[in-house]
Structure to design on (838 residues):
């Protein structure tokens, strides 16, 4: 039995953060009814596309984020949508929204309205929360990372600050919303407590354990502000090295890690105990002398060879992988990093597999991302709408 | 507040270390689980309570603030005031025991017997060496949920791999996707996105398993290899590889979603930057109008994202020329009011002083302890309207809850406690030898 079997989530979110939140829950067995606007979730238009050919079902971003979901097309801007939402909410144990507060109210999916239909938990993902001076400001992946997270110290001192790759910051907001959603669901199922949970993406990044929260506390404790460093080099060894076919990242901090690193490199001159100290790196020319031994060692080896040697010596190490490397890595594939999804029109497609392995309850893909409005009629019937009412709504363009 | 906490009544036996693991249990503690951190006065767990147990003012100054921005005088217990680690200990309890000795292991087993969850992300084999493999744990507590968060997995050829966040991020595909477009990845400075990600996914997994246990009475083992969860931070790059054979590399501050322009631009003053992203053509038109329709921007070729994409270098140069004389914060508010997505690159100080965060209750002031001054601390990122999901109790100091755990939780007698104390199990500081050599 799936861990979240029997949970129904009514999902008004679109784009990245909300859909990632509900994907996490859907892949563990929750039923997710995805309410899409006419024309569909804008993520259907996000690259990359299968064969580089756009199309509502061809976006990898959309396919990834919406596995195991059902699609109901509903125009929330139409006044008659309210009666449909009221019926849909009756099916749900939890609602997820991801609209700016003003839009929530306009569309009638704000907490007071939803909870007047049914007393149930609502997770509202917002940019800046439901109050405060920035309430109605907008964000994207770049701007949320700039304002909320540790962008200021990411990059080099002589250059502009840098974001993370892809849309990692936005997806982090979705993951945090999933934690909140399961907390809210637990409170509902165990304690009968229904409540609004506000998940502002700005706060999610301010709480980013990836140095932002610590840099803020460091400022409060010490008055020091984390800057971008002058170069990536710190310490006597470690950081990113070029190797024969790419790059590897290594940590060789003084102590155990340094000694393991020295064993791996195998050059006796590095065994000088004076080098095994935080002070060693402060000597002029010390890093260069170590690099003169280490860099040639690296360049003679491939990433796979360096990582194998590192594992043998328990050196802190990781090769710099691209998506293609992850795809081609036989060991990750064997473990289940990848799976496939059967799409009724596109056929069998590779898909990122489980992020965790449960012993008793599956992580599984029961169905590919839904086609636009694929489940509108069946779900509305289930919600108690009569066929005539459904046809009338369709005729008026309220549903599709 | 009287409303129950979501995870009220759930107890965690917490062996987690560093960031990812300790963050996972923090989310569960925030939600009301009683999280009891198992600490050992005779083992210094690297990067778990501080960069060094010998941190002093001079050493701290040599290291970056995020890891070493202790109070100016870190004092005799730097493990109680590291900015990198102390705050992931909020809402938790700490007790000490040397679990490598039989009487210490017996104590750990007593705790396991009354725990719902055991969480760990130690080097592979650490718990097994103590005699606490999964079977042994379940022999003590059959319906327990065990969360393992190994770096590269508990099976397969990478099982002996060792790594912190930076190394996991490298393999997960994060490191190669961030950096400047015109420099090699060797220039990328460290950042550890996967620690945050891994912590959240660990908490999700545990809560799902708790639901299964509520319904069936059945516990289970969860293996969350941090590298595998972290690969999900970059689904577009992974799937473009799998579907189209394409390899993504860094695009700096540009957007993979087609937001053009998307960049970080200098403003008046030193090292003050604004991020500007036009999410669609309407935002671009709003930006053009706001700039006063300069001829370069009014070019109709730029009206579409595709047109702007083709001339992105020029756009970024012109925008930088326009922003560089302007006040960052005035520009931020003005652009947002004009309908353009933009925001300042906030320093840690500026985030600490941000008016929106202050107005919306992002902080909670905690009183000073012997180890740190009275300052404002972060509350959880989300707000539950009824449950008190909040910074309820201050970060646990090392051994702070020894009395509570030994006496109230485990029910030991004064005699038993005195014996364990005499044997060094019960402490509020690390063993001097450990401090000297860690």
């Amino acid at each position: 039995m799936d861990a979240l079997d029997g949970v129904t989530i009514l999902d008004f979110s679109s784009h990245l953060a909300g859909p990632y939140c509900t994907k996490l829950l859907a892949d563990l067995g929750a039923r997710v009814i995805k309410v899409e606007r006419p024309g569909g979730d804008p993520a259907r238009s996000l690259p990359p596309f299968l064969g580089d050919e756009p199309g509502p079902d061809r976006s990898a971003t959309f396919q990834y984020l919406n596995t195991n979901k059902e699609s109901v097309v509903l125009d929330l801007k139409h006044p008659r949508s309210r009666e449909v939402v009221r019926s849909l909410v009756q099916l749900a144990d939890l609602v997820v929204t991801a609209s700016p507060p003003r839009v929530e109210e306009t569309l009638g999916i704000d907490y007071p309205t939803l909870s007047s239909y049914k007393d149930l938990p609502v997770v509202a993902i917002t940019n800046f929360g439901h109050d405060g001076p920035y309430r109605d400001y907008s964000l994207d992946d770049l701007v949320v990372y700039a304002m909320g997270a540790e962008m200021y110290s990411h990059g080099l001192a002589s250059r502009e600050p840098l974001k993370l790759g892809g849309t990692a910051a936005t997806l982090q907001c979705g993951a945090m919303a999933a934690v909140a959603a399961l907390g809210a669901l637990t409170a509902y199922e165990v304690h009968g407590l229904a409540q609004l949970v506000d998940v502002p993406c700005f706060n999610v990044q301010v709480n980013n354990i990836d140095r932002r929260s610590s840099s803020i506390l460091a400022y409060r404790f010490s008055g020091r502000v984390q800057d971008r460093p002058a170069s990536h080099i710190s310490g006597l060894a470690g950081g990113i090295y070029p190797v024969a076919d790419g790059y590897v990242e290594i940590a060789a901090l003084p102590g155990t890690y340094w000694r393991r690193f020295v064993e791996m490199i195998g050059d006796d001159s590095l065994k000088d105990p004076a080098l095994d100290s935080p002070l060693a790196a402060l000597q002029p020319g010390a890093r260069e002398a170590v690099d003169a031994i280490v860099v040639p060692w690296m360049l003679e080896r491939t990433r796979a060879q360096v990582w194998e040697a590192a594992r043998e010596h328990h050196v802190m190490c990781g090769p710099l992988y691209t998506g293609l490397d992850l795809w081609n890595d036989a060991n990750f594939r064997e473990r289940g990093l990848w799976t496939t999804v059967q799409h009724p029109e596109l056929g069998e497609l590779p898909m990122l597999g489980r992020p965790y392995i449960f012993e008793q309850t599956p992580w599984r893909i029961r169905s590919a991302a839904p086609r636009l409005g694929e489940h509108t009629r069946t779900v509305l019937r289930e919600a108690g709408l009569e066929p005539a009412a459904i046809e009338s709504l369709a005729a008026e363009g309220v549903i599709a | 507040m009287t409303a129950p906490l979501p995870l009220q009544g759930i107890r965690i036996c917490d062996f987690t270390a560093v960031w990812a693991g300790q963050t996972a249990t923090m989310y569960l503690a925030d939600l009301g689980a009683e999280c009891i951190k198992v600490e050992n006065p005779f083992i210094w767990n690297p990067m778990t309570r501080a960069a060094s147990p010998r941190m002093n003012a001079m050493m701290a100054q040599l290291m970056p603030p995020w890891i070493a921005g202790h109070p100016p005088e870190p004092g005799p217990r730097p493990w109680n005031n590291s900015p990198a680690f102390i705050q992931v200990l909020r809402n938790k309890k700490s007790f000490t025991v040397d679990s490598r000795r039989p009487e210490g292991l017996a104590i750990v087993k007593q705790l396991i017997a009354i725990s719902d969850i055991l969480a760990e992300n130690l080097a592979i084999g650490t718990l097994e060496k103590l005699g606490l493999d999964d079977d042994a744990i379940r022999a003590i507590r059959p319906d327990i949920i065990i969360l393992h968060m190994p770096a590269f997995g508990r099976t397969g050829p990478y099982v002996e791999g060792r790594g912190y966040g930076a190394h996991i991020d490298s393999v997960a595909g994060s490191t190669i996707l961030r950096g400047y477009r015109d420099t090699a990845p060797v220039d990328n400075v460290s950042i550890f996105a996967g620690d945050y990600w891994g912590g959240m996914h660990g908490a999700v997994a545990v809560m799902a398993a708790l639901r299964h246990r509520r319904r069936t009475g059945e516990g289970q083992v969860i293996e969350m290899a941090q590298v595998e969860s972290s690969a999900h931070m970059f689904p577009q790059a992974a799937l473009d590889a799998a579907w189209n054979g394409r390899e993504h590399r860094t695009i700096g501050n540009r957007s993979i979603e087609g937001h053009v322009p998307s960049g970080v631009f200098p403003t008046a003053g030193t090292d003050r930057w604004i991020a500007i992203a036009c999410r669609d053509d309407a935002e671009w038109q709003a930006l053009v109008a706001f700039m006063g329709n300069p001829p370069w921007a009014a070019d109709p070729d730029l009206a579409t994202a595709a047109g702007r994409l083709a001339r992105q270098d020029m756009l970024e140069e012109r925008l930088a020329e326009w922003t560089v004389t302007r006040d960052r914060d005035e520009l931020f508010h003005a652009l947002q009011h004009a309908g353009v997505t933009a925001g300042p690159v906030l320093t840690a100080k500026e985030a600490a002083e941000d008016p929106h965060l202050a107005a919306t209750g992002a902080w909670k002031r905690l009183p000073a302890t012997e180890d740190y001054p009275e300052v404002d601390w972060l509350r959880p990122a989300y707000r539950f309207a009824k449950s008190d999901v909040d910074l309820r109790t201050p970060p646990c100091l090392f051994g702070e809850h020894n009395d509570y755990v030994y006496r109230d939780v485990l029910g030991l007698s004064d005699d038993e406690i005195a014996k364990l104390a005499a044997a060094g199990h019960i402490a509020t500081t690390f063993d001097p030898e450990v401090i000297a050599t860690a």
